[in-house]
Amino acid sequence: MYCDGQCKNLDGKKHKCNLTGEKLSYMRYGGRKTGFIVHDHNGVCAQDENKKEDSNNG
Predict the structure, then answer these.
(1) What is the pLDDT of residues 1-57, one digit of tens each?
(2) 3-state SS, one letter per residue, for 1-58
(3) CA-CA distance, 57 to 22, in Å (whole number)?
């Protein structure tokens, strides 16, 4: 599950999820000025799982 970078639980400098404490895999694309980093949960992001449950209950 890729993190979109907008997650409030993402610690981009330490590359970890503050909610679960999970160290995230990450990939860097592009250069320093125009590049970006994509973070990836090894399992399912708890925040995404909560969103899925909320949409099923609605």
Answers:
(1) 566 667 888 898 899 888 888 888 888 888 777 888 888 877 666 666 665 555 555
(2) CEECCCCCCEECCCCEECCCCCECEEEEECCCCCCEEEEECCCCCHHHHHHHHHHHHC
(3) 27
Q: Which of 49, 4, 50, 52 is nearest to 24 (CA)?
A: 4
Inter-residue contact 38 to 47 (CB < 8 Å) = no
- The tokens of 41 are what? 């949960």
Pair of tokens at residue 49? 């799982």
28 phi and psi angles, rounded to 5 deg: -105, 130
